[in-house]
Amino acid sequence: MATSHTPRAVSAPGKVLVAGGYLVLDADYNGLVFGLDARIHVHVEPIRTKSGVSLSEITVQSPQFNGAQWAYGYRLLEKDGGVGVTQLAVSHDVPLSRNPFIETALTYGLSYISTLLPDTPIAPSSINILASKPYYSNPGTPSTTNPNFLNYNATLSEAHKTGLGSSAALVTSFTAALLSYYLPASKFTTTTDDGLRVLHNLAQAAHCAAQGKVGSGFDVASAVYGSCLYRRFSPSLLSGLPSPKDSGFATELRALVEGDRWDTSIAKAAIKMPKGLRLVMCDVDCGSETPGMVKTVLKWREQNKEEADRVWNALQQGNEALARELTRLATEDEGSSGEGKYDALSKIILGNRKLIREMGVASKVPIEPPQQTALLDACSKIPGVVGGVVPGAGGYDAIVLLLEDREEVIAELKNLVSNYSATANEVAVVDGQDDFKIGKVGILGVREDMVGVRDEDASQYQEWTATN
Ligand SMILES: Nc1ncnc2c1ncn2[C@@H]1O[C@H](COP(=O)(O)OP(=O)(O)O)[C@@H](O)[C@H]1O
Ligand SMILES: C[C@@](O)(CCOP(=O)(O)OP(=O)(O)O)CC(=O)O
User: Where does 277-443 sit in CATH, by number?
Assistant: First the structure.
């Protein structure tokens, strides 16, 4: 007989890689990542039907989007193959659309759970996903109970992502909610170091499998731990894992996520935000697609080892200096004021940008293209703005600024960006570098958040969770 469970909810933050783009793909280098106060929440509850008939399936909904419903049958497989998950039709009028991130997180999560509770059948459940406003730039109608969750009246494929790492936050909060719901607190909780370690390893494995590639994993690390200085795991850890359904998958998965083979280094104490400063992210509306950037940069590095090593080692030093100066200001220098307090920070940021541009020019990848240089320079001239960079892989679609957390500074920034696109286009033409024109620049409603995955009050989602 399946046991009945209490509803559970967990949220995980989005991310911004402030330093270490590309470098963080190599375990010899660090990434400096900030978690954001944009969160994806996942709520799990017993499945409810009007008729009281119990269904043996797990349904997943993303009620902010049209047609975002998935239903899965599941069963324990022989030969230790884990829990097999099969997508089912939701109804005659909803076409079957796959969501690899949900399907894989469910497969990995249930398989791990089955190794801890081998004699307990997995009960049916209903899972709801809610993403806070800054993840998508589509207009939407606020929910009545939490204005941070919008109803988009659009499908997920029509959602315009702002690049905050929705899939990593989703896989992390989904995995944490599933484990918290099905496992007793003696076997899993998000409030112990062991629980977080298992969650991190399991979410990394599931996220890589769903993506079909092994990235650096900084996004999953910050979804679990919040802001941190991150050093990646060896990709070979995952290549030895059997595929879901294959013989031995469940036991190997458990050994991998619980064992000590995981060589990630996550230093939370190495990253702090000084009191009085904050991050602001700007979304640049231009729709540039940059899928080949990583490939091209890595190929350049391979073919120009000496030059690349010089730039990367200098950048690593600059990135470490940035982390150190932020931490110094947040601790030793707390409370002191005065002219020039942030001069060292500004200088480090400018030095790092110069190296990033050097890497961009050498590899012919627009990491900080001239249009973004102009935008960053214009923003950095505002009194109270310490500096800014192109986050993550860079390109045309976002910038992140470090600034004094005062209304005048934000107001001045709003004023600048609201009229910005015309100026930017002039710069592009004058520079003659290319004819790419950046569009409207908008300020995203996010800032840094040091907290990673977090249990939430499961009763706050009632408006969204009424199931069939
Ligand atoms: N609110 C959501 N509900 C369900 N699935 C989501 C949601 N947000 C993101 N996803 C999943 O994550 C995918 C986007 O991941 P990806 O392209 O890696 O973007 P990102 O850079 O934001 O992680 C979507 O196609 C969808 O499968
Ligand atoms: C190049 C990278 O080091 C950083 C990319 O960071 P972004 O924040 O740009 O990533 P996406 O959200 O996946 O587009 C690749 C990596 O670390 O995996």
Answer: 3.30.70.890
